[in-house]
Specification:
Shape of chain A: globular
Largest interface: A-B, 68 and 73 residues
Strand content of chain B: over 45%
Distance between the termini of chain B: 22 Å
Distance between the termini of chain A: 66 Å
Number of strands of chain A: 34
Radius of gyration of chain B: 29 Å
Helix content of chain A: under 10%
Oligomer: heterodimer
Helix content of chain B: under 10%
Number of helices of chain A: 2
Number of helices of chain B: 6
Chain lengths: ~475, ~900
């Protein structure tokens, strides 16, 4: 008996030791190596003493300030590299563009972001809630933007502030924008060119801050604030454009966040194909003066793609897919490539009946998905047909996503439209948020741009089941 | 005021004579004995005269007793003068005329009074060296038309392109688009007030200033070479040998304006200069108070009565050395049209079949056009002696166009926004020309003719205003009753204008080698200077706080520049450009005219130098450019007289067509679906043309012409897609290989007792192949766009064009019922395959009549147009699956536009001596 116990104790000890050993083995750590990354440099350093204007290539040196006094051209075959901490300040005396015919690499870091902006003597951000948009400098445009001409290879923008761009052009320096037209802060016309906009901030614009007429895009983990004066989308996609739009925080757009269309697809251009996922969109669509123009995301005119895991709060309209070419509230809308648009797992929170009645916009073909939140069956009438009028009063103020710091129901000094910038708000989700874990990872992001530290995307962040751009794992939007 | 003057004039001239007798007789061809219908018989230095009628006789009534010198004149014949004495008995004088043989070389620039008559124009056609068609002033006055553009459609092989109210504007000659034709005044080419093109809008010219209108279809070496379809020559009334007074006054009405009011606007406060020009700086930030709201204040015109006045006076004074003719015409008209549009989206759909047309909505458009057309014409000549003559010609044309267009947005919307857009455009177009000409007989055989020309064409469109008001219908608080709120949208203003100035010199030297053989050489040089100005502003109506502005009245609206950058002028707009052109030309031409043969041939050389300065950035290719080329243009015209009344003609000529000034400028105009751009690689078109024609002139104004033509056009200019650079495919004018255009013409007129019938028919066939887009799907189901070739007729070419007139003439009374038919043709060439806009075959029936009284000096006339209210309908020739849209009545075509104009009436009084 005693013997038996000893044997048993021996076994036990062996198991415990083995367990401990295994545990320790598991707890062991290989070398943690922390070395500085090489400071990437291209060609010659560009002097800070001469204002930027005309053809430029080489490197804008880290932490330097450069003044721009005219259109800047990066010629075919040339590369302009911008090192971390650079400030590129436009003089505000013309709607100057960075015209990229070769490659532009704006490689900021989290610690040392790059700024494309204007001196404080030209404009300062107005971070007052409910400020008058007719006087807010965000909607005036003090420089042009970054434009990929028909020959450009790369536009890589990481950890960069693009503030106060998108003004009214004088003589257009690019072939695809008219003289006197509104500029777009980021635009391109080459379906073979690569555009990466990651971990960056886009603040203010008269019209669309981002309008591609063709290109391979990865727009991830950015923050868009206060774009479009009386009209404008965060990402207004035209024919020949493919890529991802994910983990973006979008607040205060005049109209939509992303809007995909295949307008003007040209020979040798692919069909517009955009995957929009894990974006957080708050209070969009309220500066668009005309009725019926959207307020979250849109698919129209021949575009295909998909949208999942988006968290929409107080949007004027839910996601809209144009199902038939017709007039909607006086606007002509052209049918999207409806057979090739996949979607589900989208989250809508609304503060008014008007918004609730448009979670599935009336007259559109967006099909309620059982995976959506709020669950369609809880508020849509029995026998609901796509696009029909319904009473959404059951979901007003329901399913609060519980942001860390943003009051919901939104009771601002005036109205929903007043929330047009992030400021001190924090759109991360509280641990008890009903938006956590309700999404899907059952789709694969489009792989159209290379993953590369300098010439591609840092990371094509895969989808998360946590709705919106701030998943609990911290892998989403880092702002 | 004008009416008082006219009345005074009539009273003064109506004083009769006391003792008198008639003079009568016949006028015939000395060789053939043929009646010379249309010959003028006059008593020199008096106002007495007559025209030889259909039966070959003339009658001058009530000639006071006394001695006279009677002169008989006829184009193509030697003038005969005889002394006669009139007492109390009838004087009979039968006179024969001999052919002069050489008085009609090509298009003669000078003219005499009786070239206006119908039989004289037939004679001119018969005698002419080349293939042409003519309408004389007499015929024009009997036509229902009041502008030259509308007269043109009566000419064989000519169809017109109409403006929004159905009025003719541009001529398509033998299926060749307006770009392939040019316009002459008295044989001198005039510039165009069009903002981008060379062709001249023909509705600027009032018809009643013309002596005759010629459409020249085969060019001789002495004519400028840049016409492939043909040249329109407006020969203005010229100085007569005796006192001539013509006056008309008439009033009219448009039936359409009985169904709805004419909605006009004032233009008196309009500033022709934009705010930045007034301030003198492109850095000037405009203020809302700088803009006139007058053009947005629409007012109904209570009695929109059309009024037309014309007066011309001519005489020869200072011992018959100085001849002059002053003509003036003023036309003030109100027109309207109603149009329904099925609006097509700019890009078709890939499903269910590629390039499926997509419709946005149905729009109703309502047009109110007020036009004031002023034409002044002065011709003087001074005869130093039999060998030297100097003429001075001046022309001033002004067309003020006030166009108000209301577009009612989709009427089917029940809830949501519906926008009503008002556009008011005031446009003043001018053509001015001063020509000094000399005709000198240096020796008996050597003649010199020269011209020095200054011309200016300009167009000004100040304060073009676009205003839209959006009506928003929302469900009311009770969930049922709709609530309507009207909001004012942004208002925009455009100032645009262009000037086209020509300085030109012409010299022609001709030498009569032997009787019937003539050699001539000549040359011309033209310096052209052109500039275009464009500026626009957009004023916002957004209120502080970003709210939409409720619309009450336009004067209560609050405008602002938001963002502030919009207050600055759009001075960089690509529509601003300057162009210059120098053309130098020389020719050698020989003419042989003996027996039954007339041969005219020679060669012309034209050297062209064009240049431009554009608004492109310095970094773009082609900010400035210059282009030079030389053309050698041979031509040969054979005429064989089968008999005194029949000709056979065969002619060959080479002609060119230069690209429009702006078509070369690579300025780009990005659109939603493709970018439009000019093309500096564009070559001018060159065409070889062959014409054959049989002509038969039985008698008087009767005729039968049967002809055929073929044109081989190298580098015709059409719009299509081309790769400018990688991924930069633009829609631009491009040369597309060769195009072949052939056809046949028939012209006839026949009179039986008091009735006449005249008509013409032209068949034309042309083909061109251009690149177009196809939007469809690939094997994987993704949309894909390809460029494909499509063959089609040239834009504007109708296979069938016909005119038919029924004419009734009785002493002192003329009436005419005219039918014009323009066959199916392409109105708009789409950038996408199979989506061209086709205008359906259209008819129009017009009626006019004139009754003379008071010894033939006075007449009342009436002109009634569009009696059957024929609409213009435009279709896309694709299967029609639309349900519930208006005007869709066929499964095989989709009607996209229907314009209705209704009838117009005009009643007038004419005085003539």
């Amino acid at each position: 008996m005693q013997m038996k116990r000893q044997i048993q104790a021996g076994w036990l000890a062996a198991i415990v030791i083995t367990g401990l050993f295994a545990g320790l083995l598991g707890c062991s750590k290989s070398e943690s190596v922390q070395v500085s990354a090489p400071l990437y440099q291209v060609g010659q350093a560009v002097s800070t003493s001469t204002p930027l204007k005309g053809s430029i290539k080489g490197t804008l040196k880290a932490d330097s300030t450069y003044n721009v006094t005219g259109d800047v051209f990066i010629n075919e075959g040339d590369t302009l590299l911008i090192q971390p901490g650079v400030k590129v300040l436009f003089d505000g005396k013309g709607t100057w563009y960075f015209v990229v015919k070769g490659s532009l690499l704006s490689l900021g870091t989290q610690a040392k972001p790059i700024f494309f902006s204007v001196p404080s003597s030209v404009a300062v951000k107005n971070e007052t809630l409910g400020s008058d948009p007719t006087t807010d400098p965000a909607y005036k445009g003090f420089w042009g933007g970054i434009a990929g001409e028909t020959t450009f290879k790369n536009i890589i923008i990481k950890w960069t502030h693009l503030d106060f761009g998108g003004g009214k052009l004088g003589t257009s320096p690019v072939s695809f924008l008219a003289n006197g037209a509104n500029a777009y802060t980021l635009t391109s016309k080459n379906s073979d060119g690569v555009v990466v906009l990651e971990d960056s901030w886009v603040y203010g614009c008269i019209d669309d801050p981002c309008r591609p007429f063709g290109g391979k895009y990865n727009i991830m983990r950015n923050t868009f604030e206060k774009c479009g004066f009386t009209g404008g989308e965060a990402f207004n996609i035209k024919g020949g454009t493919v890529g991802n739009f994910a983990y973006n925080m979008i607040i205060g757009m005049a109209t939509n966040g992303p809007k995909a269309s295949n307008d003007g697809q040209a020979p040798n251009q692919p069909q517009t194909n955009i995957l929009m996922y894990n974006n957080t969109m708050v209070a969009n669509g309220y500066r668009r003066s005309a009725d019926g123009r959207g307020g979250s995301l849109n698919f129209e005119n021949g575009a295909k793609g998909g949208f999942y895991n988006n968290l929409m709060v107080d949007s004027k309209y839910g996601p809209r897919i144009v199902g038939a070419t017709a007039t909607y509230s006086g606007n002509a809308l052209v049918v999207a490539d409806t057979a090739n648009i996949k979607y589900g797992y989208n989250y809508n929170y609304v503060d008014s009946l008007k918004m609730a009645n448009q979670i599935y916009p009336v007259g559109f073909t967006t099909k309620p998905q059982p995976t959506d939140i709020p669950t369609p069956s809880t508020f849509l009438p029995a026998g609901y047909k796509v696009g029909q009028v319904y009473d959404g009063s059951a979901v007003v103020g329901k399913n609060n996503p519980l942001f860390v710091n943003f009051p919901l129901p939104y009771v601002a000094s005036k109205r929903v439209a007043d929330a047009s910038f992030v400021g001190n708000f924090n759109f991360r989700l509280q641990p008890t948020s009903p938006a956590l874990g309700k999404g899907t990872t059952s789709f694969t992001p489009l792989s159209v741009v290379p993953v590369n530290a300098n010439f591609g995307s840092t990371e094509i962040t895969p989808p998360s089941t946590d709705m919106g751009c701030y998943p609990a794992n911290g892998k989403g939007n880092l702002h | 005021m004008k009416r008082h003057l006219l009345f005074l004039l009539f009273s003064l001239l109506a004083i009769g004579a006391a003792m008198a007798a008639p003079v009568r007789g016949t006028i015939t061809d000395a060789r053939t004995g043929e009646s010379l219908v249309g010959a003028s018989v006059l008593l020199i230095n008096t106002r007495y005269g007559a025209t030889v009628g259909l039966d070959g006789s003339y009658l001058i009534k009530d000639v006071p007793a006394g001695p006279y010198k009677l002169a008989v004149r006829m184009i193509g014949y030697k003038t005969v003068e005889q002394d006669i004495s009139v007492g109390t008995a009838t004087v009979t004088k039968n006179i024969t005329l001999a052919e002069s043989g050489s008085d009609l070389s090509e298009v003669v620039v000078t003219g005499k009074g009786e070239r206006e008559s119908e039989s004289s124009t037939r004679k001119t056609e018969q005698k002419a060296d080349n293939v042409l068609n003519i309408i004389g002033a007499k015929a024009i006055s009997l036509l229902p038309d009041i502008t030259v553009a509308n007269v043109l459609q009566r000419v064989s092989g000519v169809s017109v392109v109409r403006n929004a109210t159905g009025d003719g504007q541009f001529a398509v000659i033998r299926g060749m688009d307006r770009r392939y034709n040019y316009t002459l005044v008295n044989g001198i080419k005039i510039p165009s007030p069009d903002n981008k093109n060379r062709y001249v809008p023909m509705d600027i010219f009032p018809a009643d200033l013309l002596e005759r209108l010629e459409v020249v279809k085969a060019l001789t070496p002495s004519m400028e070479g840049d016409a492939i379809g043909g040249a329109m020559n407006m020969v203005m009334r010229s100085a007569p040998d005796y006192l001539v007074v013509n006056a008309t006054v008439s009033g009219g009405y448009s039936q359409l304006l009985a169904t709805r009011p004419f909605s006009g606007f004032g233009a008196s406060n309009i500033n022709f200069k934009s705010p930045s020009e007034v301030a003198g700086s492109n850095l000037y930030a405009a203020k809302p108070s700088d803009f006139s709201l007058q053009t947005a204040q629409y007012q109904d015109v209570k009695v929109p009565v059309n009024s037309l006045l014309s007066l011309s006076i001519g005489n020869r004074v200072l011992n018959k050395r100085l001849g002059f003719l002053v003509g003036g015409s003023y036309q003030h008209t109100y027109r309207g049209s109603e149009s329904s549009f099925l609006r097509l989206y700019g890009q078709p759909a890939p499903d269910p079949v590629p390039n499926t047309p997509q419709f946005e909505f149905v729009e109703k458009r309502s047009y109110s056009y007020e036009q004031a057309r002023l034409g002044l014409n002065l011709k003087t000549d001074y005869v130093f002696n039999a060998n030297n003559r100097l003429s001075l010609y001046g022309l001033f044309m002004q067309l003020d166009d006030k166009q108000h267009r209301t577009v009612l947005g989709n009427q089917t919307v029940q809830i949501g926004d519906v926008t009503t857009t008002n556009r008011s455009v005031f446009r003043r177009q001018n053509i001015e020309n001063v020509t000094l000409q000399g005709d000198h007989t240096l020796t008996g055989k050597l003649k010199l003719n020269w011209s020095a020309v200054y011309s200016l064409a300009k167009s000004q469109t100040p304060n073009w205003t676009d205003l839209s008001v959006t009506s928003r219908t929302a469900v009311g608080p009770d969930g049922k009753t709709p609530q309507v709120t009207r909001y004012i949208d942004n208002i925009s203003y455009i100032w645009t204008r262009n000037n086209d100035r020509d300085l030109a010199g012409y010299a022609n030297l001709s030498y009569a080698l032997q009787p019937g053989i003539e050699l001539s050489v000549g040359g011309m040089y033209r310096d052209k200077n052109r500039d275009n100005y464009y500026n626009d502003y957009q004023l916002a109506t957004v209120l502080p706080g970003g709210d939409r502005q409720v619309f009450t009245t336009i004067d209560k609206a609050i405008f602002s520049f938001r963002p502030e950058s919009y207050a600055y002028p759009d001075s960089t707009n690509a529509n601003n450009y300057m162009a210059k052109e120098q053309v130098g030309a020389g020719y050698v031409q020989g003419k042989y005219d003996r027996g039954n043969w007339q041969i005219l041939g020679g060669v012309r050389a034209e050297n062209t130098h064009q240049s431009y300065v554009s608004q492109l950035p310095v970094t773009a290719i082609g900010k400035t450019g210059s282009i030079s080329y030389l053309d050698i243009l041979p031509s040969l015209h054979l005429k064989y007289r089968l008999s005194a009344r029949e000709n056979l003609r065969l002619s060959y000529f080479r002609g060119i067509s230069r690209p429009g000034y702006f078509e070369l400028v690579p300025a780009s105009f990005p659109g939603d679906f493709y970018t439009e751009s000019g093309n500096f690689n564009l070559k001018h078109s060159v065409a070889d043309n062959i014409d054959a024609r049989y002509e038969f002139f039985p008698r008087g104004s009767e005729q039968l012409l049967v002809g055929a033509f073929v044109k081989n056009i190298q580098n015709p200019i059409e719009y299509g897609f081309s790769d400018l650079a990688q991924n930069n495919i633009v829609y631009q004018p491009i040369n597309y290989g060769n195009a072949l255009n052939y056809g046949a013409e028939l012209v006839f007129s026949r009179y039986i007792s008091n009735w006449g019938v005249s008509g013409n028919y032209t068949y034309t066939h042309s083909r061109i192949t251009t690149t177009k887009r196809v939007y469809g799907r690939d094997a994987n189901g993704s949309t894909v766009v390809t460029n494909e070739q499509q063959t089609r007729p040239l834009q504007g070419q109708s296979d069938h064009i016909a005119n038919l007139s029924l004419i009734y003439k009785k002493a002192g009374f003329d009436a005419q019922l005219a039918w014009v038919y323009t066959g199916k043709r392409i109105n708009i060439v789409s950038a996408y395959k199979d989506l061209d806009y086709w205008q359906r075959g259209t008819s129009q029936v017009d009626f006019s009549a004139e009754k003379r009284f008071g010894g033939g000096r006075f007449s009342v006339f009436a002109k009634l147009t569009n009696l059957l209210n024929n609409p213009i309908i435009v279709d896309i020739l694709r299967p029609n699956t639309l349900v519930g849209y208006p005007d869709q009545n066929s499964k095989n075509r989709i009607t996209v536009q229907k314009d209705v104009f209704n009838q117009t009436y005009l009643l007038g009084l004419r005085y003539k001596r």
